[in-house]
Amino acid sequence: MITKKYFLSAFLIWASTLSAQSSVTENQGRPYILVDKVYETHAKGRVVSKAEEYLGTPYGFGNKNSRQTDCSGFTQQVFKEFGVSLPRSAAEQAKIGSTVDINNLEIGDLLFYKTYKKEPSHVAIYAGDGQIIHASYKNKRVQYDAIDKAYYKKRFIYAKRLNIVDNNASGE
Prior knowledge:
8 strands; 6-stranded antiparallel beta sheet; endopeptidase fold (from Nostoc punctiforme)
């Protein structure tokens, strides 16, 4: 009986390793890694965990460090941990990834807003359950907000999905 359980466990680990193998494609001259959906979902959950490490960090326009950050600096720092090199501004970040319908959001998607200019000027990370995590200019800190808050609903432009890899998915 123990041998059957051991064999089944070993087989499942081996099978999951095979399904998590990735391939590299080119998108607009930039390499993106496509991965198995389960593996990618785990990575996206870790994006929110990483983003939560910044909760309460003071807002600083144009800053991107652990002491102060603005919205695009925040997303840039979070996604850097997952091998995704985002450009510096929200407008530049909005050019990356695949457009996603607001009704099909997944954890880790980037949401872009028009705040003080006609192009995207604010970016947030979708955290699931109708929540975004972002560096709020108004409240001067990284925080959660409801995606359906009137301010954000009125200014929402579109959402983008990035393909990310969790280098720590093995639990190391």
